[in-house]
Specification:
Layout: E1 3-7, E2 10-13, E3 18-25, E4 31-39, E5 46-52, E6 57-59, E7 67-72, E8 77-82, E9 91-99, E10 105-108, E11 112-117
Parallel strand pairs: 2-11
Antiparallel strand pairs: 1-3, 3-8, 4-5, 4-9, 5-6, 7-8, 9-10, 9-11
């Protein structure tokens, strides 16, 4: 069974930085894309950043220039470096792996809280 474990969340003042990590355990193969999503209270879950097998990336407009996603294929780990954090970045952050071939699968982490104080 695949399990994604996130770490690195916490409380930080506006303007500060955090680095989130998400590592996969279990039998997981053909990882096509890794991503970070977030969900603030009363809002829908939204894509924050995504990185594909060939390291192509895309970001939500609200985080461009402040957040950077990266991956370590060998370690089955994805990172999210978050700089110049704003109170509106406060949310639960979830990682997602899209993997498997020929049948595609999607796995989610349990979420990690990020709180940015003003």
């Amino acid at each position: 069974q695949v399990q994604l474990v996130e770490s690195g969340g916490g409380l930080v003042q506006a303007g500060g930085s955090l680095r989130l990590s998400c590592s996969a355990s279990g039998i997981i193969f053909s990882i096509n894309a890794m991503g970070w999503y977030r969900q603030a209270p009363g809002k829908q879950r939204e894509l924050v950043a995504r990185i594909t097998r060939d390291s192509s990336t895309n970001y939500a407009d609200s985080v461009k220039g402040r957040f950077t996603i990266s991956r370590d294929n060998a370690e089955k780990t994805v990172y999210l470096q978050m700089n110049r954090l704003k109170p509106e970045d406060t949310a639960v952050y979830y990682c997602n792996f899209q993997w498997g071939s020929p049948i595609g699968r999607s796995s989610w982490g349990q979420g990690t809280q990020v709180t940015v104080s003003s």
